[in-house]
Each structure stands twice: as C-alpha cells, then as structure tokens.
Amino acid sequence: MYPMKRNHILCIYKMATVKSLATFCFLFLLVLKNIALQAHARAFFVFGDSLVDNGNNNYLTTTARADNTPYGIDYPTKRPTGRFSNGLNIPDLISEAIGSESTLPYLSPMLTGQKLLVGANFASAGVGVLDDTGVQFKCSLSFKSCYFFTCSITKSSDLCNFCQCCMGWIKQCKKTANIIKMPQQMANLEQYKRRVSDIIGPQQTEKLISQSLTLITLGGNDFVNNYFLVPFSARSRQFAIPDYVVYVVSQYRNILMRLYQMGLRRVLVTGTGPLGCVPAELAQHSRNGECWDLLQTAAGLYNPQLQEMIDGLNQEIGSTIFIGVNIRQSSIDFINDPARYGFVTAKIACCGQGPYNGLGLCTPRSNLCPNREIYAFWDPFHPSEKANRLIVQNILVGTRDYISPMNLTTIMALDAVENV
Distance (Å, rounded) from C-alpha 197 to C-alpha 110? Predict the structure, then answer.
C-alpha cells in the first residue's frame, strides 16, 4: 500500500480548512486506517489550573478544592474526584478521544508502575502564569465570602483599610493555603522522568517524553484572581491592563520554553475563556446579564497576543511544537447562542448561590440544577461536562478559528506517521 507521508496529511488539512470539516474527517479516517496498526500509545501530560486539575489539590491544604459533593455527580463513580466539574473535564475528554485512559493526578499514591507510562496530570487549581497569582487565589473564597456577606469596603487604595474581619480571614487563609505553582509543576515533571527512567531506562524515557502529548491551561487566574480580585490590587497599581497582558504573555513564553527544554514536543496551549461572562462575574458586575467589559477587554487583548507569541516561538524553534487553542471562541459560540448547542442558559451556573448562582463555590448546600445537560456552566467559574465536550470537539477537528496552526486530529495523524 502506498505510504501516507507528512505532507499528504497537511494537504488534507488545508483542503478541510478551505472546503469543510466533513471532508477533512472523511479523508482523515482513510489516513488513520493506514496507520492505526502502526501507531503507538503516547503519554499525556497536563499542566495548569482548575480547568484541568483532576485531583492534585485534594492532597493539599487549600480552599481551592473540589472534593465535596455535588462535584462529580455525573462522573462514572458518581463521587467527587477533585475535578471542578459535574463529570469529566477537558483532559479526560482528550484522553478519551485519543483512546487512552485518563491520567492520574501526580500526587495520587495510585500513580506508580505501569500507570506512570500513561502520563500524569500536574495541574493545580488556583495557579497562574505568575507566581504571585496563587497568593490571591488561596484566600479568594474566604475574602469574597467576607466581602459580600459581612463587610463593606472603603474607597481608600490602602488594603489595610479593609474591615478587620476581612483582613482576619485573609491572614488566616494565607497561613494554611497551598497550591502547586508552575515552577513546582515543572519540577514534578523532572521527578516523573526519573521515576519512569527507573522502570524503562533513560533512553526509552526520553522517547516517551518526546512522543507525548501535553496540554497546558493558564492565564484566567492571572486576571480574575490577581489583577481584578480586589480594587487597587498590587498588579493593577503596577500595570495598566494592556501592559499587564504583555507582561503575562512574556512570562508564559518562559514557561513554554522550559517545557520545550525538558523534551516536550507537542504542546496544546489554551488561551482564556470569555472571563467576563462566567456566572461569578455576572453576579458581581452585571445587572441585566451582560458580560463584565473590563475582563472581556483583558481576555480580548490576551488571547491574540498569546497566539502571536506561540507562532513566534514555533518559528524561532523551527518546528510546530506549540498549538494555540482558542477556548474563548469555543465558549463564545455557546454563550451567544446557547439553544443551538442544547443549553437553556449560559448565564446561570448549575450549582451555586446568589445571582446567577455565581457567588462562592459549589457546596452540598448550594442550589443544584436537576439536569446538567442544559447548563453551559457547572459552577460559578467552570464549564459543565457537556460544554467541555464542545470545547474538546473543536480541539479535535476545529478550523484555525479554534485551534492553530492545526487541530489535534491532524497532529495525531502526523505523529503516527513520524513515530512508526
């Protein structure tokens, strides 16, 4: 049989972007039929925040946890797992799509032996691109609870002028909170490599790393829980928002370069969603369901600059290492037209309290919708499993409006040929 080459697959993808996704999917299936028997299972690694954390924070002393009911209500076990979802999250669905089992949290005691060869999830809810982002998020739940239900705020720019109860909550939280910031997540990858090397040897470990698939999701917390968390935040006093975006993207570039230096060669890099449209922001800043313009402006500046940075990095390296995933566009689709995607609402969270069910987090005492399939948002910040499936569908077969320079289906076909 005539062998399918890399340039042939790229040609098919270009045809698809010009004609239709249906054409692409049909032609890809023909390609996949030729290479499936020769393709090797690949490890999958996940870095980032609560959108992709699948339980690492369960092992930490932190308020940024999803280990209580009704989280996990639609997960196969019907129990909370640490995922900020009613069921599966984005990494689970990518694993499902590529025919692999879900990666375990790196801190899980079950991640040993052959399970290590599947990959690992290093993500931790609350982290951002910047190290100081984690400090704010650790105490954001305590602060917001105090702010909305107990305290009033002065107009002074001095944070010491907040009411005593709020400051007391924050100080206590800082003493006990903990998350895995990005430097430690990357250090955990190095430790992972040593553990795997003990099983399959250094040479095979490097091969496993270089042929792996990686997902990294960062940025939302740098805006929501750092720059905009409190009035007159340290970062907002330091930077105007356009300058802050430039700074965050520059620091993200350093993280991506470090991942490349550690041997990762296929990295899906997500931008932020429509930050000002989540129920948490509607609850605080919206009167009639309109998105908060300040956060929307920040996301609108951040995502294009992130993609520009990714393109420049690939050009500098001379290879397509990093793939930009436009989660904002995927989310805007179902936020602007929820009925088209089977949702009744994209403004009200399924689980929460207050306006739009957008205050606090999802707890056993929260309001809970009976049908998660018709809600785009599970809790005040995070998409439902159904919304996650729509996002992952665009990662798999989306055009360049959703993922650039190529989608995951094309990547898998290319890599299967190269790794035979």
Answer: 18
User: What's the pTM value of the predicted model, to 2 decimals?
Assistant: 0.85
Select which of 212, 333, 382, 384 is catalytic: 382
Alpha helices in 201-348 (DSSP H): 202-210, 220-222, 234-238, 241-261, 279-285, 293-317, 327-336
Query: In the chain, what are the domains?
Result: 6-139+177-418 (3.40.50.1110)
Task: Identify the DSSP state of 179.
Answer: -
* CA nearest to 192, candidates 176, 211, 206: 206
> How distant, in Å, are the alpha carbons of 155, 169, 239, 383 from that of 159?
10, 14, 17, 32
Residue-by-residue pLDDT tens, the chain, 420 positions: 334 455 555 554 554 444 455 555 544 544 443 443 334 579 999 999 999 999 999 999 998 999 999 999 999 999 999 999 999 999 999 999 999 999 999 999 999 999 999 999 999 999 999 999 987 545 444 444 443 333 333 333 333 333 443 444 444 444 334 899 999 999 999 999 999 999 999 999 999 999 999 999 999 999 999 999 888 999 999 999 999 999 999 999 999 999 999 999 999 999 999 999 999 999 999 999 999 999 999 999 999 999 999 999 999 999 999 999 999 999 999 999 999 999 999 999 999 999 999 999 899 999 999 999 999 999 999 999 999 999 999 999 999 999 999 999 999 999 988 876
Residue tagged active-site, from 95, 379, 384, 415: 379
Is 50 designated active site?
Answer: yes
Q: Is 132 among the residues known to form the active site?
A: no
Residue with tokens 């470090």: 258
40 is catalytic: no
Where is 268: in which H helix or E strand? strand 267-270
CB atoms within 10 A of CB 148: 13
Q: What angle do CA 49, 219, 166 make, to 5 degrees?
A: 75
Pairing of strands 367-368, 403-404: unpaired
The single residue of 50, 108, 286, 330 carrying the catalytic annotation is 50
Question: In the block, which residue shows the tokens 């249906």?
Answer: 22
